[in-house]
Amino acid sequence: MNPEVAVVIPTRGRPELLRRAVEAVQAQLYEGLVESVVVSDAETLEPSTLPPGRPDRPVRLLANGRTPGPSGARNTGILASKGAYVAFCDDDDVWRPGKLAAQVATLEQAPHLSAVSCSLALHLAGGRVRLRRSRHPTLGLPDLLGTRPVHLHLSGLACRRDLILHQVGLFDEAIPGSYGEDYDWLLRLAVAGPIRSLSEPLVDVAWTGGSWFAGRWDLIASAILYLLAKHPELRSHRAGRARLEGRLAYARACSGRRAEARHWAARALAANPFERRSYLALLVSAGVPSAGLARVSALVGRGL
């Protein structure tokens, strides 16, 4: 008998996209029960917004009863779920039909894995699509310290519910604004065991450059400082620390704190002279508008 899977879908303010995401979950070829656990964050969502459930594809609508934001919403869904496996899907992303069947089969065959991810099809501004695949079939903690792999997206991840509850832990609701909450959780997931990455693109991810965090530079900076303080393994990894310090420098530059931007850029470049965000931070602190840099980054499918 195929184990039950719960799909946690946090949502806020995108009812049309949400319906599309839930329909894609219901269309999975997996021959087991798949429950969509939709968690409405900071708004009232009418049940009629969602497609009707079926015995093998039920849909449950919950309100986020924890800290507002994606961390609290995902935790609400995890704690309310019943499946042996938990998968995640953002409300603007779409699963391809074979996703769950491939991931659950992999997890069933390899109990040492902490999770299974997959390659992504990134839908960029202007209608272009770029594939993002892992260079390695299995990722461990060292792979995540040096970089934040684009393909390791929560919408492409499935894992065991018991592992979350008893070893990895829930998403950290204390991170300022929930910025980087997925990266923090993935670091802890990688400590619990390796993450297998399937080569086939099984999720279509919206990547148009828009973000709730756009322009919230002080919040972003606070969250990065929180992550650096929380994870000593990041501070001892030169490339990983430089990546976050470069991002911090860029956030400080965009908020007009030029001296701080130059300070963090210098620290990042001392650890890794190839850290590109440090150079972008220096450009912004010298007066180059940040909006143009963000547009270029979105066009090539890379975040700032």
Number of strands: 10
CATH architecture of the largest domain: Alpha-Beta Complex
Number of domains: 2
Query: What portion of the residues fall into strands of 2 or more residues?
Result: 15-25%
Instruction: Name the CATH superfamily classification of the largest domain.
Output: Spore Coat Polysaccharide Biosynthesis Protein SpsA, Chain A
CATH topology grouping of the largest domain = Spore Coat Polysaccharide Biosynthesis Protein SpsA, Chain A
How would you characterize the overall build of this protein?
This protein is α/β, with parallel strands linked by helices and 304 residues long. The model is unreliable at 296-302 (pLDDT under 50). Helices cover 42% and strands 19% of the residues.
Kindly summarize this structure in a few lines.
By secondary structure, the protein is α/β, with parallel strands linked by helices.
Give keywords:
single chain, 304 residues, alpha/beta, 2 domains, 42% helix, 19% strand, disordered C terminus
Topology:
Blueprint: E1 5-11, H1 15-26, E2 34-40, E3 59-63, H2 70-80, E4 85-88, E5 94-95, H3 99-109, E6 115-124, E7 129-132, E8 138-139, H4 141-146, E9 158-160, H5 161-168, H6 181-192, E10 195-207, H7 217-230, H8 232-235, H9 238-254, H10 258-271, H11 276-285, H12 290-299
Parallel strand pairs: 1-2, 1-4, 2-3, 6-10
Antiparallel strand pairs: 4-9, 5-10, 6-7, 6-9, 8-10
